[in-house]
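From the shared-data thread, chain only:
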Amino acid sequence: GILKNKLKSRNIKDIKGDVAEGILTIPVIFGETKGKIITWLLVFLGSFAIPFFLGHPQWMVGTIVNACLFLGAIFLPKKFFLSLIIFPSLGVLARGIIFGPFTPFLAYFLPFIWLGNLILVLVFRKLGSVIVSAFAKFLFLFLASNIYFSFHLVPKLFLQAMGLNQLATALVGGVIAFIILKIYGRLNGRS
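Structure, as tokens:
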């Protein structure tokens, strides 16, 4: 609930309100069209490049990606969500192809990772709760990975990556997003 009210007032659609309150956002500084393009590029670069260039450890990359997902849910219109939920796993997959052995089980699981990210973003956007949205993502990925494991489609190690690690990185990512939001608010004269 804490972020729910902030959620409604801080998205790219509220340019007139931001101008009236003197809040410096990308669309206010660069104009609506250029602002949307720049915002999309930042989402793309952040959500693809972080997993691609950092790669490991999972707790760090996952936390940063989840923080981006929460911030995207707050600041971006729904039309940006597809990029936001898909690019991180493509960055991880591309890194595996280029820098290490290709992991086919990740390719099989991509749609579930995308759905897990979408669940996190939509549940957070609807309820404004980091805890509920993190748990919803974790539960979905945990159940899907266990089904895959029962059919011998993924190794046991995959269960750990899609288990409590997902919950922890989503919760910590939510806390980081909240801290960034507080800093953003202070920089723009809000508490």
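The two ends are 16 Å apart (CA to CA).
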